[in-house]
């Protein structure tokens, strides 16, 4: 069983302390997202190697993210990547919250580059300090960020997008 907090910045999607029984810390980020989508139908995403679109249906039963100033209006919302010389692309961030000597600490998990979410184990490159508790809560956050993409990298990403759409029959 995996204990995780999940967030998508910009969509007011905040699912604190979920217990997922069909994934483990060594499951890929994609497998974790698939498990969340199965358990919480208000959340969905599209993507193959890369995430293209993330959607969330915010309702009065949703949990407002902790640093949000106002309660958002109910309703569906989605954000999608936009590819060009300057692109909007989805990036994920991993961390764990772990008690150390009775105090909770958030420890960021850093992996070189941004490994594809379909291949990256959630716990890859996790290093816990001595004295850490085994009561770990993983944190997975997605953000749509604007970056400049090199022409070759853009070409590869567009090719992966076309392959995904072809598999979907689109």
Topology:
Elements: E1 2-8, E2 13-20, H1 29-39, E3 43-47, E4 51-58, E5 75-80, E6 86-100, E7 103-109, E8 137-148, H2 151-167
Parallel strand pairs: 1-8
Antiparallel strand pairs: 1-2, 3-4, 4-5, 6-7, 6-8
Structural class: alpha+beta
* Beta strands, count: 8
The secondary-structure element order is EEHEEEEEEH
Count of helix runs:
2
Radius of gyration: 17 Å
The separation of the N and C termini measures 36 Å
Helix proportion: 10-25%
Identify low-pLDDT runs.
Answer: none
Keywords:
five-stranded mixed β-sheet; 170 residues; 2 helices; globular; three-stranded antiparallel β-sheet; alpha+beta; single chain
Q: How does this model look, in words?
A:
- The chain has 170 residues and is an alpha+beta fold.
- 16% of the residues lie in helices and 40% in strands.
- It has two helices and eight strands, in the order ββαββββββα.
- Strand 3 and strand 4 form a beta hairpin.
- The radius of gyration is 17 Å and the shape is globular.
- The N and C termini lie far apart (36 Å).
């Amino acid at each position: 069983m995996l204990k995780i907090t999940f967030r998508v910045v910009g969509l007011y999607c905040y699912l604190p302390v979920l217990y997922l029984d069909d994934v483990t810390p060594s499951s890929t980020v994609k497998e974790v997202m698939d498990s969340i989508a199965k358990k919480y139908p208000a959340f969905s995403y599209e993507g193959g190697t890369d995430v293209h679109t993330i959607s969330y249906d915010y309702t009065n039963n949703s949990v407002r993210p902790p640093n949000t100033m106002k309660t958002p209006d109910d309703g569906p919302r989605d954000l999608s990547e936009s590819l060009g010389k300057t692109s909007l692309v989805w990036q994920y961030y991993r961390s764990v919250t772990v008690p150390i000597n009775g105090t909770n600490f958030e420890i960021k998990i850093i992996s070189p580059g941004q490994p594809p979410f379909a291949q990256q184990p959630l716990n890859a490159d996790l290093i816990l300090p001595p004295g850490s508790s085994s009561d770990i809560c993983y944190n997975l956050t997605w953000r749509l960020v604007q970056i400049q993409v090199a022409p070759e990298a853009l070409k590869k990403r567009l090719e992966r997008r076309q392959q995904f759409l072809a598999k979907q029959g689109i």
